[in-house]
Amino acid sequence: MVALRLSVEDLSRVRFASTLGAAFETHLAEARYSDTRQDAFSEWRRKVKRRLRHRAPAPALQGLSGPPPPADGRLFQAAAVEPFWQRIHSHLEQENNARLRSVMSEGVEGVLNQLHPAISWQAPCLRVDTASGPEEIELAGGGLLITPSLFAAQPLILAADRTHQGVPALAYSICLDTDSAASIWQEEEEDRDASLRELLGHTRASVLASVRHPKTTSEISRSLHISNPSASKHVGVLRRSGLVSTSRRKGFVVHRLTQLGEAVLG
Asked: What's the predicted TM-score (pTM) here?
């Protein structure tokens, strides 16, 4: 238990921020990744594990059962946080904006008891259940930065020298529901594919993706398990849209992406 003693001056200097940054979340994500429970982070762990296996040297992964441990910090951040950072940041911003609206209507003191079940405010102390303690910290008019965290398992107190703002920070963990998790863990390429399929239709989008490498109509139909007439029809629409070009090669009609088609697929 840590008790933060806030004076009237401290309360007037309490600030709210959406995040302490990707590097901070990466540090907390390492502990989340090592957890093997089925929870809102399970899909994220599966995707990070796959990314790490593709990026890490093979010998380092031999004999592992379960998630491989995080590699160096930069590699782990690139695999675990950066692909999802835009959505993570947006989710944290929404949480922070909700707190700011509450401050406008209820004041800072009214919000302090709403942050997390492990955080309670009874003037002049803000009590935080943490792994450390017991400890009492007097802010002495320096103010406090309050920010949500996606990967924090429990609230954290950070000393002033660990924040870019130069004041102590309270990072509180937020609850991640099923719908939010499904949205956040969708990667950029998955989001783009979903939008493309919504625009073109599932089969036509699959036909477009299939000609990343030039194919005949028969090859398209076999690879996608559709009929030749259906493959031909979809190719025709894509060709008229300027996404696919058709040429003859050694007596075969071959379809390939145009520059526009490559740009659409990304």
From this structure: 0.66
